[in-house]
From TrEMBL:
Protein name (database record): Reverse transcriptase zinc-binding domain-containing protein
Pfam families: zf-RVT
Domain of life per record: Eukaryota
InterPro entries: RVT-Znf
Residue ranges occupied by any Reverse transcriptase zinc-binding domain in the UniProt entry: 130-214
Length: 222
């Protein structure tokens, strides 16, 4: 049984196949970490009971295989295998399932719909449909919001300007201090009568041209 996560994001790999064949160790670690995070949010709507009894998280919380060491990854018993006339076969359950899990399973009501495959539900979205955006929100590592970043990437500031300012703050312009790292010969600016070094501080604050701009806006703001 293929989960929506595996079918839509990780179609070329799963925890039970190909691991390490094309990926580095770090890739596999990140993959496993993200897979665990995402699978927590996948539920199952049981129809004909064809999803994996042991390996799909249809009960909520975790797969049943996680609760026992006796189940092989090759055990592909379906939910239907544990049903009789649409009801749980308690005798069969008690032969294989850890006792603590039996009440939860018996309390799970199943309304069989013959001929319709069980379907995965993405619990994050209202409609239950999987979206890469919502999966990314779960997996991504969020950093704390800083005042500078929240003001820099403001909805009322054009992206081009925000990006330019971001480059200035992060020293991403090809100015002297950056080019010096590549062994490029330093040059002086073209904005001042007494030329200064073409560095970020000079271009945006200390140079004549920068001074003129700052003065213009400072004057207009009083
Ligand atoms: Zn200058």
């Amino acid at each position: 049984m293929e989960s929506i996560y595996e079918s839509q994001i990780l179609s070329k790999s799963s925890s039970r196949c190909k691991k390490g064949e094309y990926w580095t160790v770090t890739d596999v670690e990140i993959h496993d970490e993200n897979k665990i995070k995402v699978e927590e949010h996948i539920g199952w709507k049981i129809n004909s009971g064809n999803c994996s009894f042991w390996w799909d998280d249809w009960l909520g919380g975790a797969t049943l295989a996680n609760s026992t060491t006796d189940i092989s990854s090759l055990n592909n018993a379906t939910i239907a295998h544990f049903l009789v006339n649409g009801k749980w076969n308690e005798r069969k359950l008690r032969l294989q399932v850890p006792p603590l899990l039996i009440p939860s399973i018996l309390n799970t009501k199943v309304q069989l719909v013959k001929g319709v495959k069980d379907s995965a539900i993405w619990k994050i979205t209202k409609a239950g449909n999987f979206t890469c955006k919502s999966a990314w929100e779960i997996c991504r590592k969020k950093k704390d919001t800083t005042i500078i970043n929240s003001q820099l990437w403001h909805q009322h500031i054009h992206f081009k300007m925000s990006f330019r300012l971001w480059r200035a703050i992060r020293h991403k312009f090809p100015t002297n201090e950056t080019l010096a790292n590549f062994g490029v010969e330093l040059v002086k600016c073209y904005c001042c009568i007494q030329q200064g070094w073409d560095e970020i501080e000079h271009i945006f604050i200390q140079g004549n041209f920068a001074g003129h701009i700052w003065k213009f806006f400072a004057d207009s703001l009083g």
